[in-house]
Protein 1
Amino acid sequence: MPANAWAAAEVNAASLGSDTLPQLSVPWKPKAKQEYTGLAGLVAGIAKAVYTIAAPIVTAAPGMIMLGALFSAIVAVWAHYLLFEFVDGLIAGAANGPDLGHFGAAMTIPELQAGLASASWPAPDLICYPIYLLQYSLTRDVVGMGGILGFISIIPLFAIWWERKVAGRIQSRTGPMRVGGWHGWAQCIADGVKLLTKEDLCPADADRPLFKLAPYLAFVPAILAFFALPFGTYWVFRELDVALVFVLAMLSVEVFGVILAGWASNNKWSVYGAMREACQMVSYEIPLGLALLIPIMAAGTLSLSEIGEMQSGGWLSWIVFRNPFTFVAAAAYYVASLASCKRAPFDLPESESELVAGFHTEYSGFRWSLFFFAEYAAMFVVSGLAVILFFGAWYSPLPISWADSLGDSLFAKAAKGVLFAGPIWFIAKCVFLLYVQLWVRWTLPRIRIDQVLYSCIQVVLPLMMVVMLGQTLYELLVPAGSIVFNIFNVLLALIGALVMLGFVGIAAYGFMSGRRLVGYLAVDLKPGS
């Protein structure tokens, strides 16, 4: 709307008094104000008190609180790793003989007390009892599972908030800005509380058992995929020789939840979305699998940890820069992963412009939220596979050999984790690829189902067959370290460096622009807009 039209509308609105505005009425009686008593009143009172105390603090320094929470989480996770390493060292150095602890534990209480005392731990007679439980693999599994579930809970909340901010930026808006103060950081938390309190509806003609089962069938496999996904050299819940096969199997099971949701809803829009998902997934799983075979051929193993360790030599050792075929395979895999996660331009199973909401049209409340938790968790998993198989895994662009001179002190271990290798690098790379998925969604339009199948069957699939043949011949005819190998390696690494510099430049420009945008909705206009 032109600026003069906005001004005229404001004048007309201001000229109308409150008495001239129409009074609206509804045919039902307003609900009486609900009074909380007993336990509910106690909980409500505590929540109000916490909000009254915490709101001014959070509003005053939200950025510092966020950075402090992130730093505290990193320190807490690292402390668990050091504690497990310390217990393993005590177990390895203990002279047990025939005496074992309870339920087959490697150390007895006196041995553990002696080990803690020799390491100058405070109050070893008391600390030994909780640490004693860390000898059991079950205890460590419970701790690891808690960390995974906590991480999976944070990723969707952060990704949903971030997608709203990215969408707003691309559309010349600011996105969420109110809930929680600083950039609406608590918007997703508020939405989560709202979804938990909404009524759980099930259509009368739906298949109730399958309708209720479908969200869990979509969400649980996404969680299980994290169990075999390594975040670092020793940072994996279960080390599997066939970890890649396990992760792909879990991602494939997720599609059954989507198909089941559409079928059980007994709604034509939901069935259309489910059938689109089945057609799309069956088509794109073939080129996706072929793309993943390329780094497997280069590494010679299906173990994700071993593939990650191969890329410890710095930027040039990353598999994506190994030869032109791995470079193309990385791009093809990323495109196929968008279809696997139902992300634009392949979000046809939802397709809100024509199918209402697609396969989850009839869902509400908590069950509805599980589909989105599964989607964002799967987005992180496919990004993690791309990082491990192509983009250096948990290693930085610097060679890990440079860290040998730092020693083995606590500070040296922290420096290695920040500068050379560790879960921080793995998560940072995954978050970057996750951001690209958000960027693509709000940049490219949705394509038709026939275009989806055409791009798969007649473009990506033939391309991957050619790439697979080329990779086979390249591995046979061009040995590692030869002149041809090194030339392609350096050229592709330079191309990758230029691409990354381009992303850094775009990010720096956006940061310097601040809230200056284009369009009538912008708070501060950019020059010339």
Protein 2
Amino acid sequence: MPKVLSNGDELDVDLTEPEIKQIKDLLERAPTITEWGMFDVMHSEHCSYKSSRPKLKLFEDAEKNYDYVLAGPGQDAGVIDIGDGFALAFRIESHNHPSAIEPYHGAATGIGGIIRDILCMGVRPIALLDPLRFGPLKGNPHSQWLFKYVVKGIADYGNCTGIPTIGGEVEFDKSFESNCLVNVACIGLGTIEDFEHAPSKAYNPGDYVILMGGSTGRDGIHGVTFASRTLTEMSEADRPAVQIGDPFTKKMIIEATLEAVKTGYVRGLKDLGGGGLSCALSELTGDGGTGGDIDMSKIFTREPGMNSFEVMLSESQERMAFIVKPEGLETILDVFRKFEMAHAVIGRTDDSKVLKVKDGDYLVVNLPATALSDAPTIPREEKRPEYLDELIAQQTPEPIKGLEEIIYDLIASENICSKEWVYRQYDHEVGVRSVVKCGEGDSGVLRIIGTNKFLAASVGINSKHCYLNPYEGAKGGLVEICGNVIANGAKPMAMVNCCNFGNPEIPESFWYFSNAVKGMADFCKQLRIPIIGGNVSFYNEDEVSKTAIKPAPVIMIVGIIEGKEKIITLPFKKTGDDILLIGETKAELGGSEYHSVIYDLEGGTSPHLDEKKIKATWDFLFELYKKNLVKANHDVNKGGLMITIAEMCFKNNLGAELDFNGCYNDNLRDDEFLFSESVGRFIIETPPKDYNKIMEIAKHLNVNVKKVGNLIANPEIYIKGLKGKNIKLDVNKMKKLHEATIPSLMEI
């Protein structure tokens, strides 16, 4: 790690030698020790996106190309116009490194940070989602410890703020054993007028800069630089870089911020997350084309004797920076006094385009505002890993046990089993918005009060598919997550992503990132889904074991349902109804749970998709919805179609008589048909009287639809029409296996 000197002070930095030279050349002098610290955090990968920015330009300009997109990438959150005067904001971020060494506070402060991002858009946070990844739980106390306390951290913080956690996913894989992934997402709702009052930029010279919320302490210093390098055996020493959150203060910050925005006097708003004051002040002024004059003595600190370096780099939680019109200063201060929130006027903006920070008589920071907020990019090499050809060439072995036993094993496996142990710790119904409970739909559904609109949101990715083919895996992830909201009756409106990858300095790791980004960009352009924001988390790689995570470009989709009667849920409803399989099943078992659980294989042919067929399937479903022909819907993903059908039977204790004769290609083996994870498929329940009408619509849109059976009252699943023998499955046995796995592994 390089060292820099300033007036006899020495500092270890994560800057490269070329970056150090470039900074000195820009300033035509040596920076102060505080300025060095600010450059160190703002030029970190976490803040600057210096490796990823060139690739992220592949995403089309959402604000330019979609008239309902109000804010796109570069803002604290993406915002869309959903009609009736309402603006919907949402964002997803990572808190991986902190959670890997301090799972409770790492996860909790991740929730705190994402809530503040939504607040910065002037709207109320109304829902949380949490996609998580850990090492296998079985026989692994370390993974169990991380899992337990990450979930507890999210639950304790989210529950205390009164914001429901409406969805998420959990994936277990050996590659996440040391580098767990804790991604957090938040959705906010407000009026378009509220959003317009709170840009995350300081455009106007002469406005006041107000710091509101928690006090500034020594916790979290260098949190972003810690998150911009790989984990090593020394990473435990970075524990002080993990911040400590206070959800009760956050609740008051939410109310005080929203009331302040309503006054119309807030001209800019920024949360103090990664990089602290260094990031907030430089981005407000740099992006707004202004400068700032800050008096450090006005900043309220938690600990005595804090110097300018510590104050400017602290990442203490629960702090917000407001840019306020001069004529509204007292009004805003009165709002903060009303909520008993600590606050201070710490400076004013000016037209100098220079950020100045004074510590008494000393000018400790005197930097062009854009020098910090516009870091130079680094071109990275990319190379396809040599091991992929051998992995992809792996063949599916002949089944080593009966298909019934395989299905029972899969339904109880860690990635397929019930996640009720997780969501029962969350208050997923707090407030009056939640409509579809966790476990009863493929996405979380919320009512938008004052309208007949409902919001559906889902999040996730299949990292095993992305490991074999990041381009197709990322596209397949979009199909699945869009499919989740579509299964509940919603039209996908917009997407954000959280790209979790290994060390970008390693060409093979950067190749995964580059191809995943291209996959998302190509799919979204073709299917007309705007990408309105995202986050990149690199260096998810363990130096000790030399293990990088499987690529995880986590995708979040929001959609809108027009009318309560149009909401579709997952459980089967009525005996005698038809069970239809929509979409084509191919021999795509690469990266499947079948390969992983039964054979401990990671390779094979992973799913590939045809965007035109995906679009036709979606159009087909919306046509059925329009005519009220669908009573239940569940997309087919991990484990294949038999897992999907079983999960739909559980809630109402129904069974099914299935006949797969003529339902699949003669070239497919039985196990390939049953356990393939081909993307873009759905299982739907429909009334028998509507069968002919449904098939006519399918023929018109050229969509592959097969009737595979009917629902019965007896909780058993009878399967015939396979090439092998008939199968009988006990639904109650499957449900018990499905529900018991995580509680038994967590010793509950």
Protein 3
Amino acid sequence: MRVPTYATYMSMTNDTIANKKLVDLYSYQSITGLKAQTYSGYGMSASTIVSLEAMLGVTNNFMENNKITEVEIKTMNTSMESIQDAINDFKSALTSFSGLVTGSTSTSITDETGGEITFTSNDPADYLGKTIVVDGVTYTFANNATDNNIDISGAASAQDIMDALENKLPANADFDFNGTTFTYPLGTVANSSTIISANGVTTGEPITTTSGGKNLTPDYLGGEITFTNNNVADYMGKTITVNGIQYTFADNANGNNIDISGATDAEGVMAALQAKLPANADFSFNGATFTFPNYTINGSSSVLNVSGVETGEPYTMSADQFREMQQLQQQAFTTLKMLVDSLNTFANGKYLFGGGVSSQPPVNFPFSTLDEFQAYYDGINIQYPSNASADLSDFSVNADDTGDITLQLNGTNTNQGTITAANAGGFLKPVLTANEKTTGTLTFDSDKNTLNSTQYGAFDTLSAGDTIVLGGDVAGNNAKAYIIKSVSADGKTITFDESTPINEDAVVNPTNNLTMSKSFPVGSVINMEGFNNNNIATQVQVTGISDDGTQLYVTVDPSRFPTTTIPASSSWSMSNESYYKGGDLDSQKRISENQTLNFDINASDPAFEKIFRALGEIAQGNLVDTRNPADEFVGTIDSQNPLDRVNEALDLISEALFNAGENATVSNADIYSISAKINANYVVLNQTMENQTNLAANMENNISSLKDVDKTEAATKLLLASQNLEASYAVLQQAMSLSLLNYMK
């Protein structure tokens, strides 16, 4: 071999290095399946690969975030399904219960026998072939005992025939056989029984009763009152409340006084009562007895406590009715607890129905048992809030606002009270001052009972049920307290409740300031905190406010509302709190470069608030007013109370489940629209995730086609390259071992 020149040596070295690079490349490819270690190794494809990988990274990020969003949507949907199922179950139970209290399905039934039948004829022939229908079963008087025949073949007297009837009928504790007389509950013996018209058969006086739709409210007077005490002086000064009007027995006829000055005995007192009362076809006076429909005499009628005053057979609900009522109220409370748990759902580090607040559960419900709930909402002095504003309001005042406060009942035998602040307007908080920027020109319309503004959104901070007080000299005769019935969608018009009418038409220019202040909404429950006096009730319920905002009108437990002035102190405050403790933040989640999901559902939405009110309406105390008119108590007994509450709850639940009327103007007005919104989000998200999965797979395939190689092929090339490298090494070694001496030889 010739000694290589420098050029030949460098050529062999470069060939060896090139073979070495090929060995390294094919070795990397056979191990990893990739074409090159760096993007520069992909040549013209490098920019395409970088772009595809960037897009894949973005898509993968969306896919990971969307998995979290999917968990949230599925969890919200599960909560909504639980709520919907529970509310539908409760609605069914409530509808069933309404059959016990509604009067629309009641039926009047007359028992022609009056619950009693007597046999006086001793001739069996008078009875043969006659029928008696007992509890729906027809029996026939016959000469044999076949099937439902009553065998009187051996009877020789009326007593024998009655004995045969007694022996034939099934044993029943409500049946009474006394000689030839059979006594039984009304309706037991059907009027179609032919025995009733048989010779020698007599019955009791016909009695008409009402079946179905029985009122659950007890009437302990049984629709009858009798005066037996002939001492007229014992009646003097006593009261009787008839159809809600209180009358007083007195020695004159002034006002609602019943003049008994000329009475000498009990009948004379009853005659004076009859003369005073308005004519009523349902009233019956017979001597010293007054008969009337149930619930006519109501309230604390002190005459009932007079010695010798007797009443009829008390009417009370049956044990089955009482048990069903208890079960319904327990179900209402259990459903409340379930609703709270569902709306306090926590996932991915946040409360899903909290409106952006993650530090605390959105629903505050501090009651563990039905007894605790009813101790707070007794249904008489304190009722569950009856409107959304009262249910969701957070309003408070303290001594800095009111100064000293004075408590006082509005009379005797009442649960109505007044709280008076020493500071003028002590129960008000300013919310708006009318001017050119805030409201523009204001127009009072007494015919429509509206207040109109020329500025859009002027009244957006107000809502239906709010109690406001308008002030300022420019308000004129319209400066007073109002309850808001509705606020228009554009925020320009307030419609006031009929109970607070506008006094006169007026126009207020924007240059003339008019003030608008808010107070405790009517129906809201105020917690009286920090008074350190067990004689003061811990809560009162707002019924109204004075036109100057200085007096608050309330209902309260009258035994815990002494007439007193409480000095201003930092230790006490008055506040009502919403059940909702979350926020009102709507959130958006980007699920792709071009798509965003909106999350605007929280626990204060109208659908949920109505459900809270419906359940609270039923779960609160005294669903059925069981007070006795003969006892001393405040107010009057409302026999319609169960019916009113059940109907109100049914209406609220129906609106909460589906409310087509509000869907167009109110967000999240019902469960249907909320569930539809959640399901729509899930459909969009699911489709997007599916598209992203396919897109990611396509991009991965494209990247793989540009970056990947066949490992087997790379291994084959590695083998050939290794052989070439070994040959290069051999040639290079041999060339390097040659010298000039070798050449000269």
